[in-house]
Structures are given as structure tokens and as C-alpha cells.
Predict the 3D structure of the following.
Amino acid sequence: MSKFTGMEHRVPIEKENPSIVCNDALCKKCKLCVKACTLDAGVYPLYDLEKNGDHGVCINCGQCIIACPFNALTEVSNISDVEQAIADPNKKVVFITAPAVRVSLGDAFNLPTGTNVESKMVSALRKLGADYVLDVTFGADMTIMEEAFELIERIQNKGVLPMFTSCCPGWVSFCEMFYPDYLNHLSTVKSPIGIQSTLIKTLFAKKNNINPKDLVVVSVTPCTAKKYEAKRVELSQGMKSQGLDGLDCDISITTRELAKMIKDHAIDFNSLEDQEFDNMLGKGSGAGLIFGNTGGVMEAALRTAYYYLNGINAPSDKFLSFEAVRGLDNVKEAYVDMGKLTLHVAVANQMAEAKKLIDEIRNGQKTFDFVEVMACKGGCVNGGGQIKILKKPVMDEARINRNKALYDGDKKMNLRYCHDNPLVKQVYDEFLNKPGSVIAHDLIHTHFYDRSWEINGK
Ligand code: SF4
Ligand code: SF4
Ligand code: SF4
């Protein structure tokens, strides 16, 4: 008999799920989570508990949490872990905040949807006890330096194409479970949080003369799947390369958990003074900022791939507002004139819809050079860890406003290309040598696993 018997109305969540937990006492059997797991995540209809050994399959995307009107489904809370680290006088706590958090956090403090609260968020984190607050846009810049390099290398050396982005852990899990034959299509570059965490435990620790064991990296993300990603030991080469146990990213909390911490500490968020991120490994470009939007990774990568191919920055009229890959459509396709060659690219969001495109690629109906996939509808701005908005019209508007806020942020920045970021250049000069180097592969690339047993049984 299934351990999930009697729970047919809701998604089956394993007790060990690192991202999602269900409080059955609050469940009103509305089945909205099942709808989200079917139509958004595309997971629920694709497996059978009777055939897979009664295993609740999950890509940790948190779209069921966003859909649950009664808060029966929530993220696994890691707030006490953060509080404990802050209270420990021997630990230095480094918060790293993903791009999309800043355009949703304000929703918890009655600000209009899409308000960019970056500087108040930084201030709040310092009030909570952060020793350092760094922007994951820096990690995003690093991801692009390696990913654009890998793309050009694959094209020039007749490698496996299309190359797929791999910075969304929801999509990576989906690929590992449902498309294990496509794992060699995934870019081997780690996600922005993965890279930044490794660089903090290595270069940052060294430059600040801190033992890496005394650093606690806390990622603040729009994403429940990042809690799962943080536990992937193969992402912790920073610690491993120094012969140390432990993870590179120690704790991951969502935008909602950060909002709760701010409220629990009675911090008057809207009255906080504006503050800036710390500088070392802490600031990124506009291209890194738009990572939170569907199409953002693609646009950032195209800007840098153009530079790698031509030795000059891409024409700003097209590449700094690349309309063909923008917008909230589930699938966008474009031919891109890169000077020396033309790329055929696609951008897909909302896993259930993206799956249709992946099937077309797999059965040969469509061919591309480069494909971006994000599991959540609209990208990370609508991630499973963002502030919940249950009313559909308000949520639809929020998605548009959050999306626009990141593009506006990019437009306002002087630094629009990842490869122009002086902090990125410094990291290569002092530590990683050059994109695609041996040390870069050792530390900031990764590998993936065939997890089809989760669908088919062991
Ligand atoms: S987290 Fe995503 S995949 Fe997992 S049960 Fe919820 S909607 Fe489905
Ligand atoms: S959405 Fe929430 S309340 Fe509705 S069935 Fe799912 S867990 Fe229960
Ligand atoms: S789209 Fe973003 S928020 Fe959603 S699962 Fe992927 S990385 Fe997480």
C-alpha cells in the first residue's frame, strides 16, 4: 500500500525532501498543488507511484507552494540555522542575494509589486547580523564568462549541441530524471550561487585571512530548489580542494524566509537607510542582474559570446535590449547575427511548457545551438520561494512588474557586459587564469547524474 494513501488530493512529498514540507492539518484538499505540479512543473502526470517504488517525484521548484491557498505546503525552513550561525562568535556569515529577491521582497512590506528594494535589503541583512552582503549578480557574471566560452568551444570543435543552460536546479533535476540521454547537452558550468559560494570558500577566505571552516555562506534566493542544489556535494569543490569537509553554500533561504526574519526582528524595513553590497566578489553587471528573468541568461550570454567571437562589444542597439528573447511567452526562438556566425537560440520557461520544446528537439523536429530553460513561469522572478500573491490578476501583474524592474535595473547600470566587470577580471588574473582553464573546470564546473530510477524504480 502506498505511504501516500489518503493524500490523493495533494502532491506526494517525501519526508526527506530538502525544499518542500506539507502540514496535513492545514490541507483543505483543494488539489491546487496537483494542478501546479501538472501544468507548471510538468512532473505530476509523468510518473506512477505503483511503478517507481512509491517515490514522490519532485524537482523542488516550489510552484505547489505558490499555488497552495492555505499554507499547508511551505518551504523547509532554515531560519534557525541562519540565526545559529549569526549567534556564533566564531563564525563569519556571508549573505549572497540572488537577482530576483530584490524585486519581490517589497511585496511583504506593502510596496507596489516590482519595487526594487536592493539597498534596503542589504541594510536589513546587516541589521540581522551579516558580516558581509554580496550580490549574486557577480556569480552570474562568472557563470556567463564560462558558459559563453563553453558555447563557442562546442560550436568551433563540433561538440554536443544544442547546449542547454544549467543554472536552474529545477530544470537540471527534470533533465536528470526525464531526459538522462540529454545530460551531455547541459552546460557544465555551475550556477551563479554555486560559483560564488566556491569562490567565497577559496579566494575570498584567503584574501580576508579567514579559515574557510569559519565562513558560513547563506544564499537568499527566489528558489526552493536551491535548498536541494546547495546539498549537492559535487558543487562543493571549494572546501574539498582544501581537504575540508562541508559545503560551499552552507544554507539557502527563500525571499519569504528573509521577509519573516525581518518581521520577527521587528525591523522597520521601509524606514531602513539605503546601503550597498560589499565590494570583494560582491558586485555584478546589468547582464548578471537580468538572470532573474526568462531570457536573461540567454541575453547575458549572447553579449559575452559576441565579445569572445569578435573581440569587441556587441552593438548596443540590439544586444542591450534583446527583444526577441524577452517577454513572458513560454517559448521564444531567434536567429542571432553574431558577426562571424549566426546562432539559432531558444528560451523556454515553465517546465511543463518547456518540455514540449525539448521533445521537439529530441525527436528532430527542431534544431538549435543554444537553449535556455527555467522551470518557473517567467523565470526566477516567479520562483517558488518568492512572496506569495494568490489573486491571479495581481500575480500576473507582479510577474510583469518584477520582470520590468530587473530590465530597468540593467538599463540604469554603467556596466552592462559580464566580461567588463573589473571584479571578474581580477578573479581570473589572481586565481582562475582564464575562462575554461583547468582550475576553472576543477572549481566552477560540475557534472550531472542519471536519476531516471526516480521515475522507473530501482
Ligand atoms: S516542488 Fe514542484 S515538482 Fe515538487 S511537488 Fe511541488 S510543484 Fe511538483
Ligand atoms: S494546495 Fe494546499 S490545501 Fe490544496 S490540496 Fe494542496 S496542500 Fe492541500
Ligand atoms: S526558474 Fe529560478 S526560481 Fe525557478 S526553479 Fe529555476 S532557478 Fe529556481
Notes: The chain has three domains: 1-76, 79-138+191-283+425-431, 143-190+285-383+415-422.
